[in-house]
Inverse folding.
């Protein structure tokens, strides 16, 4: 398939360009150009090409970092090893050897980089596994091929102007006819190896740059802790400070920060300190964060991704499509064998990835998106039709999102459900749950269970255990926020057998196969951290997270997810 061949085609083009550059360099040296002068012009040309691109493409995305002495030293070291020492040694070696040998030895770069990565414990090799043996064999094969070219050279290929003048030899002291001296050939080969080693070292030390976001978070965390904030044990990106009735909270995602609190003077103080230390930019009241649109009024807060949805519809050419009122045809069930395989599955994967992020504010599409994601490795036409139906559903209300009312209580409640053997391919069950804080939906889940359940009761009990873990984490998080629970969290389940298993601590022959970790539910019941309650099917809010529903049932349950549409419906035809 063309999509699978693209990486190989790109590598072939890169190799072709590099081979041409090596031949050009060798021709320049044979023509008498000084190696240092050639490298200077090469770097100057690259700079003139890259600087405008960096200013246009990277300036807005770049994170402003103060040019400290340590940062300057890093730039110097990277430049010295990467674009100075390695290239100059390679140029001298190329003058002593041939373009063929230079290109071959440079291709040993992955092998030498892998060696450094193993030495610095960035990579692991287990010689007892097939992957470890393949890695070692590939490295040895690469080095063997390079060594063969280094110590065995073929006949000389001369051009018409192969006799160089004394002037040219004087201008380029590194140039000699490498075939006239085996020692110079060996010396050039060793210099090429040295340039590759330096290049590998340059790539390895740059690994620290990949940790830049981690280092930034560590520095910001240290700064906040020094000023009286403590890091939440439940969410390490959350920092809190309590002083009397004053509460200040920081939520951090890389260099995006949300600050909330009820003490304006303290907020102004900490933002001033942050600006002095890190040169931050205050964007005012929260309106947009990581693609989420935030709208506030006296009645509550609304989260949506309208702009994100519109972008998806526009990119997929669905702006003029007819909206539909349901996500899936509840009478049909998809499997891996449904439809015929797509010619280009990459577009399906990209679209599904965008929809997965959309579930951040659209819990009503969680089940269908999860269901279609299991076919990502080999999507078919049937799966593609289903994913485009999701887009048609989104078109009817692109601005729909979560609403958090200000008058909501602070009591946790959850609904647990499972669809026993719901996966047609693996016969694994589906776990689904929504968790509410008062009337606000704050967490939800729709995922295939890791094991196969022998009965619907076992599947429901596993779903109960998963929901209990989520309630436990949310309880810890609320405790960090100084929100005390005056009564246990309520957990609703529609399966009577699962309720009896949780309540009955006596060992029973028919339940001994259930995993021990599932009995976490019993422990929390004993400690009074949650209360199990039955729920009738019409009021089971977790149904929309485990199965496809009829239009009437789906609409009724969606209305109970506390979702609100702040925008007008798009035009484009009538509903189906």
């Amino acid at each position: 398939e063309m999509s699978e061949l693209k990486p190989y085609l790109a590598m072939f083009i890169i190799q072709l360009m590099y081979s041409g550059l090596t031949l050009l360099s060798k021709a320049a040296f044979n023509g008498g150009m000084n190696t240092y002068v050639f490298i200077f012009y090469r770097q100057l040309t690259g700079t003139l090409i890259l600087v405008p691109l960096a200013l246009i493409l990277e300036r807005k995305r770049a994170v402003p970092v103060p040019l400290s002495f340590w940062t300057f030293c890093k730039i110097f070291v990277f430049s010295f090893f990467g674009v100075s020492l390695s290239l100059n040694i390679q140029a001298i070696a190329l003058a002593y050897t041939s373009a063929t040998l230079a290109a071959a030895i440079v291709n040993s770069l992955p092998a030498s980089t892998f060696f450094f990565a193993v030495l610095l414990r960035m990579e692991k090799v287990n010689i007892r596994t097939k992957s470890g043996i393949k890695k070692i064999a590939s490295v040895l094969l690469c080095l063997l091929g390079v060594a063969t070219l280094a110590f065995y050279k073929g006949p000389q290929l001369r051009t018409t102007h192969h006799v160089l003048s004394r002037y040219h030899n004087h201008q380029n002291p590194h140039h000699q006819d490498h075939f006239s001296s085996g020692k110079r050939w060996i010396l050039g080969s060793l210099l090429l190896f040295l340039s590759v080693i330096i290049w590998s070292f340059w790539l390895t030390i740059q690994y620290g740059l990949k940790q830049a976001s981690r280092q930034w978070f560590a520095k910001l965390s240290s700064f906040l802790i020094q000023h009286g904030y403590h890091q939440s044990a439940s969410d390490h990106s959350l920092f809190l400070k309590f002083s009397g009735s004053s509460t200040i909270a920081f939520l951090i995602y890389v260099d995006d920060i949300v600050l909330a609190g009820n003490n304006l003077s303290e907020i102004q103080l900490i933002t001033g300190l942050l600006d002095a230390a890190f040169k931050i930019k205050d964007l005012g009241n929260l309106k947009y964060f990581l693609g989420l649109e935030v709208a506030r009024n006296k009645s509550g807060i609304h989260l949506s991704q309208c702009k994100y949805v519109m972008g998806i519809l526009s990119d997929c050419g669905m702006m003029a499509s007819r909206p539909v009122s349901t996500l899936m045809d509840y009478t049909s069930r998809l499997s891996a064998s449904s439809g015929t395989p797509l010619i280009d599955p990459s577009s399906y994967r990209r679209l599904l990835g965008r929809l997965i992020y959309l579930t951040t504010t659209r819990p009503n599409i969680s089940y269908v998106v999860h269901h279609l994601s299991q076919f990502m490795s080999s999507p078919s036409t049937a799966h593609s039709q289903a994913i485009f139906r999701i887009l048609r559903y989104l078109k009817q209300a692109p601005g729909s999102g979560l609403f958090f009312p200000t008058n909501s209580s602070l009591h946790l409640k959850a609904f647990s459900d499972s669809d026993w053997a719901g996966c047609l391919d693996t016969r694994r069950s589906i776990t689904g749950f929504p968790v509410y804080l008062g009337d606000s939906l704050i967490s939800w889940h729709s995922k295939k269970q890791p094991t196969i359940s022998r009965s619907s009761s076992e599947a429901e009990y596993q779903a109960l255990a998963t929901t209990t873990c989520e309630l436990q984490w949310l309880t810890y998080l609320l405790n960090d926020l100084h929100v005390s629970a005056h009564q246990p969290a309520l957990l609703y389940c529609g399966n009577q057998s699962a309720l009896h298993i949780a309540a009955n601590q006596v060992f029973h022959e028919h339940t001994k196969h259930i995993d021990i970790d599932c009995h976490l539910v019993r422990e929390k019941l004993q400690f009074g951290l949650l209360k199990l309650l039955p729920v009738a099917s019409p009021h089971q809010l977790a149904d929309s997270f485990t199965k496809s529903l009829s239009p009437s049932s789906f609409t009724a349950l969606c209305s109970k997810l506390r979702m609100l549409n702040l925008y007008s419906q798009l035009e484009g035809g009538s509903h189906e």
User: Anything to note?
Assistant: Confidence is low (pLDDT under 50) at residues 154-180, 569-576. The radius of gyration is 32 Å. DSSP finds 19 helices and 14 strands in the chain.
